[in-house]
Every structure is written in structure tokens, then in C-alpha cells.
Amino acid sequence: MSLAVARKPLRADAARNVDKIITAARQCFREFGPEVPLQTIAATAGVGPATLFRNFADKEELVLAALNRQLRLTVDPVVDGALADIDGAAGLLRVLEALMDAASADANLLGAVAGRRELLTGITGSLMESISVLLVRGQGQGSLRADISMTDMFRLLAMLIGVVDTMEPGSDAWRRPLALVEDAIRTTRPTRPLPAHVPVPSTPGTSPHLG
């Protein structure tokens, strides 16, 4: 489990500082990108660098704390609702939608830990357990393919998260790839058109992307 998750209870004033730092981190990463200096985050939070480093040893720990909070706030309630729903496939798709929406909103936070998959284990472990429950439920109901394993789901989820690197932060371009994944994992393809096609944005100084 990451240090960003396994925190001791804080005094009220310290907890307020942590909340201000995490809020400022999300704002600064959105405005300035993954390379934003910690000093900028501290200034935005209205705290000194010493206060920031007393709570977060480095940028990595701060990023994980910010990602963890957003998952708990935005994805966990959807997971709870999905687990309470009889329909396993519908619940699983709602969880994937919530996760992709959160990933898009905090694309620059994800970019700061790109390629460090092991760092995310501490904040996604319970999520994968819930996805496993929903997958087995949907397979038992005959709505999800019986030959899909959790290894398949882990890789599909990693592929979907990778879509964030090919779109503008905050975009909902992930909806089309997610619909394609839904088509692949359901036993019967949904009778609905794919979501709108969104071209891959061009990056200055590179060849135009296909789109």
C-alpha cells in the first residue's frame, strides 16, 4: 500500500493543510502540466514548502494522494451502487465510465506517474476486487463473456487508461473506446451507435496524428 493511502489520523489543522495542498495540486497539474514544481503547488495552497514536505515526501506521494482522493470521492460511490445492482454487466460498465471520467479530469496527474504502474496498486486494489465481483456476476447472468479473466480486465483497463494520453484533458473522447470494449466483453453486442468520433489532437513539433 502506498504512503499516500496509509496515513495516520491528522490533527484538524494538519488535515486542513493536507486538503489545501491536494486541492492546489489538482489545480496546478491541470493548469501547468505534470512537471509543475512543488513550490508552485505550495504557493497556490497558501502554505510554505516546509509544510508541504512535512506531509508529502515528494511529488510522487502527493500525486498518489490526489489520485486516491478523487477515486474515493468520484468512483467509490459508483462502485457501491454497481455492487448493489443486480445487473453485473451494467454495473461494471458504470464503474468503467466513472473511472475513465476521473482519469480524463486528472490526466496530468496520471501523466506524473506514467509508466509506474506499481505505484497505483495501493489505490486501485479495492477497485479491481469490485470489478472482479461484477465480472463474475455478469458472467453468471450470461451477459458477459464466460472466457474473460481478470487478467483480461486488468489489461483492458490499462488500455483504456492509455487512451487519456491521446486526447485533450477533460475530453470525453474515451467514450468511443469504452463502447468498443463493451462490444467485446458482452455476449450480445449492444444495439446502439458508437459515440462520436473525436480526432487525436496534434502535438506541436510532431507529424500530424491520424484522426
From TrEMBL:
Residues annotated to bind DNA: 37-56
Ranges of Pro residues composition bias in the record: 192-202
InterPro entries with a match to the protein in the record: Homeodomain-like_sf, HTH-type_TetR-like_transc_reg, HTH_TetR, Tet_transcr_reg_TetR-rel_C_sf
Keywords: DNA-binding, Transcription, Transcription regulation
Positions of region (Disordered): 190-211
UniProt cross-references to PROSITE patterns, sorted A to Z: HTH_TETR_2
Domain spans labelled HTH tetR-type: 15-74
One matching Pfam family: TetR_N
Claim: Transcription is one of the keywords in the record: yes
Name this protein carries in UniProt: TetR family transcriptional regulator
Species whose genome carries this gene: Pseudarthrobacter polychromogenes
